[in-house]
Design brief:
The protein has a five-stranded antiparallel β-sheet with strand order 12-2-3-13-14, with helices on one face. It has a five-stranded antiparallel β-sheet with strand order 6-7-9-10-11. It has a four-stranded antiparallel β-sheet with strand order 5-4-1-8. With 292 residues, it is an alpha+beta fold. It has one domain: Aminohydrolase, N-terminal nucleophile (Ntn) domain (Glutamine Phosphoribosylpyrophosphate, subunit 1, domain 1, 4-Layer Sandwich), CATH 3.60.20.10. The protein starts with a helix and ends in a 15-residue tail after the last helix. It is built from eight helices and 14 strands. The chain is globular. The longest helix is centred in the middle third of the chain and has 22 residues. A hairpin with a 2-residue loop joins strand 6 and strand 7.
Length: 292
């Protein structure tokens, strides 16, 4: 199509020329100022005045992968939000959880969702799971300047591999660093301020070939343990009915588990911990005045 026919259509030539399947590349050519990594950077570190998301965990199980995140966002020593959502579907067979500067992270997730959808429309097929992981790495790398000023975004990515070889686990997990480094994890992973405590929990409760229900409890329990030791991670809040957000990704696609399902598991964990912490008193001490 020549410039004259493009002009009659009302669209600039770049909108009509098929130069690639990357929406990010297209945006970089037509409106680069809309890309998060192309905006003017702050001259001083500003991380303490921006809300930050905290802990995300993910585990594989016999039929796929699970990802969960707590609901708290912090700004310095303050709780800026008690009900933020940090886990999102990236496409039909993958999910992404965010940790770091919340505003930039959510914008990056939305751009990433469009990137994957744009690829499917242009190419007529779904991008491979490795391709999805690499595309996300490139987006994170584009945010490096802001990360150096305290606005880092470090997501966790997981999905069901439609091309997995027979006998291998179809659920896969990828972690990242602020430079866009892409690392595949084995079995489980955690990111965010409470990740150290979450990983300590996961290494005790996760095992190869977990059924879906056991893996579900493992995710919620890891977030509970992280909240127990990390002030930036929010624990279950039965008063406000706020519980972690958990997604399951299997051969049927990515599905968000209901609040009732998560609440039931969280409440069971709280009850088990309360029972374990109750001291075993001698029988006579339970009688009035300690008398048998």
């Amino acid at each position: 199509m020549n410039e004259r026919s493009a002009g009659r259509s009302g669209f600039p030539p770049a909108y009509l020329d098929r130069v690639g399947s990357s929406f990010t590349d297209f945006l970089g050519a037509t409106a680069p100022d809309l890309l998060p990594g192309r905006r003017p950077l702050p001259q001083l570190p500003v991380g303490d005045i921006a809300p930050h998301g905290t802990t995300i965990v993910s585990v594989t199980y016999e039929g796929g992968v699970l990802m969960g995140g707590d609901r708290r966002a912090t700004m310095g020593n303050l709780i800026s939000s008690r009900d933020i959502e940090k886990v999102y579907p990236a496409d039909s067979y993958s999910v992404i959880g965010i940790a770091g500067a919340a505003g930039i992270a959510i914008e990056m997730v939305r751009l990433y969702q469009v990137e994957l959808e744009h690829y499917e429309k242009i190419e007529g097929l779904t991008m491979s799971l490795d391709g999805k992981a690499n595309r996300l790495a490139a987006m994170i790398r584009g945010n490096l300047g802001a990360a150096l000023q305290g606005l880092a975004v470090v997501p966790l990515f997981a999905g069901f591999d439609l091309d997995a070889a027979p006998g291998t686990s179809p659920g896969r997990i990828f972690s990242y660093d602020v430079t866009g480094g892409n690392y595949e994890e084995r079995g489980y992973a955690a990111v965010g301020s409470g990740s150290l405590f979450a990983k300590n929990s996961l290494k005790k409760t996760w095992r190869q070939g977990l059924p879906a229900d056991a893996a579900f409890r493992t995710v919620v329990e890891a977030l509970y343990d992280a909240a127990d030791d990390d002030s930036a991670t929010g624990g279950p809040d039965p008063v406000r009915r706020l519980y972690p957000i958990v997604y399951r990704v299997d051969a049927e696609g990515a599905v968000r588990l209901t609040d009732a399902e998560v609440a039931a598991v969280a409440d069971a964990i709280v009850a088990d911990r309360a029972e374990a912490d109750r001291p075993n008193l001698p029988r006579e001490a339970t009688q009035l005045g300690g008398q048998p």
